[in-house]
Amino acid sequence: MTKALAGVLTFLLATTILGQEHNPPRDRTDAIRKLSRRERKQRIAKLEVRHQDFISDVEPIIVDAELDLFLSLENNQERDSFVDEFWRRRDQMNRTSGAFKEMYYRRLDQVRTDFKRITADRARIFLLYGPPTEVARGNCPRMLQPTEIWKYAYLPGVGTNVRLLFYKPRHQNDYRLWNPVGGAIALADLISAPDAVEGSAEQRRGPAGDAVSSSPYSYVNRIQLECSDGNEIMLAISSMVQARVDLFKIFNPPGLNDEAVQKMMRSVVISNPNAPKLDAEFSVRYPAKDGSRTGVQMMLLIPRAELSPAEAGGVEMYTLDVTGEVLRDGNLFEKYRYRFDFPGDIAAEKLPIVVDRLLRPADYVSRIKVTDAHSGAEAVIENPITVPEIFESAAAPEAASEPAPALAAAAPVPEKEAAPQVVELESKEPRLRIVPPANEPVSGLQTIETIASGEGIKAVEFWLDGKKIAVRRAPPFTLDVDFGEVPRMRRIRTVAIGAGNKPMTGDELTVNSGTDPFRIRIISPRVSPRLAGLTRVELDVSVPNDDELASVELYWNQNRLATLYGAPFVQTIDIPGNDEIGYLRAVATLKDDTAAPVEDVVMFNTPAYMEQLNVHLVELPTTVLVNGKPSDTLTEKSFKILDEGEPVQLAKFEYVKNLPLSIGMAIDSSGSMINRLDEAQKAGAQFFEKVMRKGDKAFLVAFDTEPQLLQTWSSKVADVHAGLARVRAEDKTALYDAVIFALYNFQGIRGQKALILISDGKDTASKFSYEHALEYARRAGVPIYGIGIGIHAPDVDVRYKLDRLCRETGGTVYYIDQARELQRIYDDIQTELRSQYILGFYPSPDVKPGSKWREVTVHVNDGKARTVKGYFP
């Protein structure tokens, strides 16, 4: 305590002259005009009572920029949107998943019960940080003013094991947080002895007869010696001295910088009072239905002359941000956000913004804000809409018998007792969809079913992997197809044929595409002979449970047309009507910046038959071992690649280190593993604990009589551990089935990947043969690292098959006697996977897709290269 006392005295002496000179303002932004205290008071007085109550309730946690923005809003709808966004932001900042508002109001009720004012120091600390873990009340009235010490295990911006000292100043009725800045003055405020308050320089005799100064500093030692809780008080004083800089900010609400305020304004429909205004024409129509919901297509026309294009590299681009809300019965029903891009040389005088939503028939209010991303100019458009019930029957009601205009005006809100509006589906265009299989992987004989709607479909063509295999000329348009013994990725296409044997529309579906939970697919349009003008695009987006979608971008060729930030993933885009070959591309990105984006591409306006060229780059993840250890010093000239014995030119050379890994583990859970399973589980848990880093993901398969997926792809170590805990040993060994089943999960996975296969014996129960497993492993291109437990030299056949399976995929095999040896092997595997060369080459033009397995050999000048042994074109 002696050093602490010395530190306290030193700091108090050094800060005597500082007083109140440091009083930093709250965060603010220049985007919103800072209001004076008088202006705030006047504007608050004009608010409705509920909004006045909101300002009063959140005063301790709202920052000035937010308050000024709220008081600058023009109507109650904007204020209600602000309030919703305010609590959503607090949930994001505190990671409370929608519970912060409830928690805050529980604290507020407690504060109103226990404290005089919610703006008092103890009340503000309670509201900001919650109740303390412990409260110690001072009991030394002869020397100190009444005190309370609040203890927190952790306070953001202050540290751990924090003590906050509150005291009741003389002639005041409420406690204040003691501030060590101020030196003698600050210390004197704590001390109740009159001579300390006066700061007299007279000498007097202390309890031991020694001469002491009557200044406040002389009381530091006496507090510890004479107060029963002196040690606790001195610890609090010392703690606050050490945290002196942070105490300046302890009452400040969580910071909100300029960018955060701008982001908040973009994410809700609230107008920026300082922004220039845009004109906008609004219209709505109802072109489709989805089950019981109606497709609502809202269009805004924005004058191009009022927009300001951004320029980069000599190319101009108009970018418009769109934020929308749908209200029902005065309450927020849903919200959405988009971004639209238009080329700077666009000829249209008015740029079309099309927003597609799926709503159930009812009355709503649509509120949309459009902002020029370059100039900040904006328009806020509010309109009532009545969403009708849509029927696809041929018999349309009399009111809807006339052809629907291209863009109908917004429907008026009917009286409450009026019958619901009924409208015939505007579009009679033919549509054809393939019904996805109920379960994957798909193999053997399967029935392809389709759903046809609209008018004019006379027949349906069925294509498999680019080859037409059948035509059905009468409903139901179905076909039985043999997908082969081993599940492979196959592409199914159906084409609807109309009058004159002309293709009209169609669909395409890829089966056996793996289990990666992050994927995107363009559902419609999928097959179309000609595509131009306003086109409705439907997307299917799948996101892993532990991730969050950042955005979905839509491109026509290289031009980005729209960006979506949430479901439903439906968007109408304007495709140039030049009949040139083009492609529609959808790209999905996660907020986790370590995860690679995924995309889907569909070609349009192509000839009916196009020659397929083999432009597939064959990639060879290669490990080079020198003296038994991976080498990272080789150059491109050190490698030579032979394709079926013929040299090929190296088209890609890259040394990669510490790339994200995608790892599968297939662990034998047959009855023979019962005595080894505990050790195998522990070693597996240690492996994933040590290996998995940010950006990595893994899955887990256990196999006995049949393989079972215990954990799907996950980036959380805890998920994989939970899967390992569910492994139970029983029954026979379906090793070959497990190889195929595990490798299937890698379909569509990019980057560094590996399958770790753990087993203690030969296959005894598989439906697939060893040859099936070997072919599938060759096609998958995933290195297999086999670990044989208790498989001894006499087991020649078992060892041969496991060796070949691993060697031909670029992996290797290890043989051990006990599961506890696994950890050493895992270290070797991780070292190898984290440092590899990626070699690539293009096959010769005369190598046709779908031909036989081709053997590849990699030679190096020094050491031994380990890579895949071949490929299927």
Topology:
Blueprint: H1 2-14, H2 37-45, H3 49-58, H4 64-72, H5 76-94, H6 100-114, H7 121-129, E1 134-137, E2 147-155, E3 159-167, E4 176-177, H8 184-190, H9 194-198, E5 203-205, E6 211-213, H10 219-226, H11 230-242, H12 244-247, H13 258-267, E7 281-290, E8 293-303, E9 310-312, E10 315-328, E11 331-343, E12 350-359, E13 362-372, E14 378-387, E15 389-391, E16 422-424, E17 431-434, E18 445-448, E19 450-453, E20 459-464, E21 467-472, E22 479-482, E23 490-497, E24 503-511, E25 519-524, E26 533-542, E27 549-556, E28 559-564, E29 570-575, E30 582-590, E31 598-604, E32 618-626, E33 629-630, E34 639-643, E35 646-648, E36 652-657, E37 661-668, H14 677-691, E38 697-703, E39 707-714, H15 717-725, H16 735-744, E40 752-759, H17 770-780, E41 784-789, H18 796-807, E42 812-816, H19 822-833, E43 835-841, E44 854-860, E45 864-866, E46 870-871
Parallel strand pairs: 15-16, 37-38, 37-40, 40-41, 41-42
Antiparallel strand pairs: 1-2, 2-3, 3-4, 5-6, 7-8, 8-12, 9-10, 10-11, 10-13, 11-28, 13-14, 17-19, 18-22, 20-21, 20-23, 23-24, 25-26, 26-29, 27-28, 27-30, 30-31, 32-33, 32-43, 32-45, 34-35, 34-44, 36-43, 38-39, 44-46
Helix pairs in contact: 1-11, 10-11, 14-15, 14-19, 16-17
